[in-house]
Design goal:
It is a single chain. The chain has a domain at about 5-60. Helices cover about 35% and strands about 5% of the residues. The protein is built from three helices and two strands. The chain has a two-stranded antiparallel sheet with strand order 1-2. It is extended and about 50 Å long. The mean pLDDT is about 90.
Length: about 90
């Protein structure tokens, strides 16, 4: 959930829909800002203790849908559903 600095670095969600591939060094610089375990939760509030840490909740609904699709595939007896069929 604290992946926002990397999401921003890659440019995901830009109006143009076109981000850039960041350098390995730029990614390594952002990694200390990505750690949900550092988030402080206290009486209904959340606090990020490091400047430039940020929350991105955009993956929650996507993860929920993928989990549901996985369950449906298993229930239907689909054995291999991760490989695209074209």
């Amino acid at each position: 959930m604290t992946v926002a600095p990397l999401v921003s670095l890659w440019g995901f969600g830009l109006p143009s829909g076109r981000g850039q591939i960041p350098s390995g060094e730029a990614i390594r610089e952002m990694l200390p800002l990505v750690d949900y375990r550092r988030m402080i939760l206290n009486e209904g509030t959340a606090y990020l203790p490091v400047k430039c840490m940020a929350v991105d909740l955009g993956g929650i609904a996507k993860g929920y849908v993928v989990d549901g699709a996985f369950d449906l595939c298993q229930e239907a007896g689909v054995v291999c559903f991760c490989t695209p069929i074209f």
